[in-house]
Amino acid sequence: MQKTQALVICTLIASVVAASSVMALLTTQKTVSGTGAIKAVGLGVYWDLQCTNSTSALDFGLLEPGASKNFTLYLRNNGNSPLILSMTTQNWNPSTGSSYMTLSWNREGQQISPAQVIQFAIVLSVSPSITGISSFSFDIIITGTG
Q1: Which string of b and e fits 79-106 if b means at least 16 CB within 10 Å?
Q2: In a domain, 107, yes or no
Q3: E strands along 42-134, which residues?
Q4: Residues 9-27: pLDDT tens digits?
Q5: Most buried of 29, 52, 119, 146 (most Cβ within 10 A)?
Q6: Is there a domain that residue 81 lies in?
Q7: Domain assignment present for 41
């Protein structure tokens, strides 16, 4: 009887191990890479508060479905009148990228005075259901209207 019980226990353990192995084989992962160019109209975009290190591109790196990547940057009004800020994207490559990725920031509609510098956060979020995209690029347009 003890041999039969031992055999049953070994069989159960082997079944659990085999099932775990099969489940591990069914795991899949998709990684997308990307870049982003920044065009700022009447504005300067910088990595630092002192506005000495300007940027015109962001590298979002490798992103997995459902992930997000954020940057903290600084914006300076280079003009001589107050501006209301807005941000859009364009030139998505591939064009389906905008269906699976969303770019947002925390300064939409805010006013910025001449020579004023403000900190802002920009976030790219990737849909968990992204398919068919292994790399991407797009332009970020930050506009000041006044």
Answers
A1: beeebebbbebeebeeeebeebbebebe
A2: yes
A3: 43-46, 57-63, 68-77, 83-93, 101-105, 111-112, 117-126
A4: 434 344 444 444 444 445 4
A5: 146
A6: yes
A7: yes
